[in-house]
Amino acid sequence: MELQISSRVCQNLLITVALLICFSAIFYTYYKPTVNWLKWPIVSRCNSCSDICINAFKMPNQTEMVNNTCIVNFTSIKILVTQSEPVTQTDPDTILLIWMWPFGQKFDLGICSSRFNIHGCRLTNNRSQFKNSHAVLFHHRNIRGDLSNMPTLPRPPFQKWIWMNMESPSNSRLHSTLNNLFNLTTTYRQDSDIMIPYGRISEKTGGSTTYEIPYKNKLVCWIVSNWNSNYKRSQYYGNLKQHISIETYGRAFRRPVTYANYSDLVSSCKFYLSFENSIHKDYITEKLYNPLKLGTVPVVLGPPRKNYEELIPGNAFIHVDDFSSPKELAEHLKLLDQNESLYRQYFTWREHFVSSTTSFGLEHACWACDHIRRNKNYRVVNDLNSWYWG
């Protein structure tokens, strides 16, 4: 009888001790005292510490009676607790060094938090911070083939080198020296480590609203400066203009467009030729996202429709591949010009979504810094050339 009472007392004592231990663990986790008075490691994300501790006491061989004395084996508790990482002080800022400004275009180095809600990242272009930087960002177009403008100091083991490129493979020079040099990639491609598209379609804040189409006084428009008669877009335009009137602008047509009047011009067109200069997977540029943002229906020439629909609504654009010939496309555009209800169907997505364009360079730096802050694993791009140009 006395032994049974002692057992119950021991059991109650164990539960009390368990709760005290768990209370201490929770208190230590969130209060983070400067004195390490609790000797055991603490679970950093413990949502049910009491369950863990009490379950440990329920395991076999955790308690026993020896000469009417309650003996407790705390080993399993320690094992359970140490399965998670211990609590640490707030990590210092992750430093990302911009080794060269992309295309020489500078941007504000201190707005990752205000623009993208990215905290704990510090951007710098001060090369004297090389040894302290957690990552270095390199823009492909600015890298010399002999790597003579790359860092010459020994590379810290913890430091990641990030390769940035927003040009298509057709418009990017291949350097055989780039293999086994970088740890991460940031490009427009969806299989990049840090994918930064030329634009985004995102949900409206505040719910759906009716979209008012801007006033139109032009049918089809195209702005182009980089003219190459061998480009597919140049050849398609040559055939299309035989069947429909196209308003052309840009240096290629000796009708330059200024930044100030670009938006008004594009929004005044019912259709805009969003023709890419080269055809590659995921290579969908601002030529698409700008007309979408400005209330014009883009007519796209680029990767297959399926690729576009991975990034934007299928009823937001017209793809040249949907028609057997430029003549058939022209007939469809004329039909939409005469039928307002059919034309409006290309704007139904605007009731729920908005289009935006990317802040070139800035977003790459901010999101790359955020990526390495969250991902500490080692990685190297062994064959960059095959991945991007292969």
UniProtKB/TrEMBL annotation:
GO annotations of cellular component type: Golgi cisterna membrane
Subcellular location, principal: Golgi
Keyword tags: Disulfide bond, Glycoprotein, Glycosyltransferase, Golgi apparatus, Lipid metabolism, Membrane, Signal-anchor, Transferase, Transmembrane, Transmembrane helix
Keyword Glycosyltransferase: yes
Domain of life according to the entry: Eukaryota
InterPro entries listed in its UniProt record: Glyco_tran_10_C (IPR055270), Glyco_tran_10_N (IPR031481), Glyco_trans_10 (IPR001503), GT10-like_C_sf (IPR038577)
Fucosyltransferase C-terminal domain boundaries: 214-387
Localization: Golgi apparatus, Golgi stack membrane; Golgi apparatus, trans-Golgi network membrane
UniProt protein name: Fucosyltransferase
Lineage, highest ranks first: Eukaryota, Metazoa, Chordata, Craniata, Vertebrata
A Pfam family that the UniProt record links to this protein: Glyco_tran_10_N
Quaternary structure (record): Homodimer.
EC numbers on record: 2.4.1.-
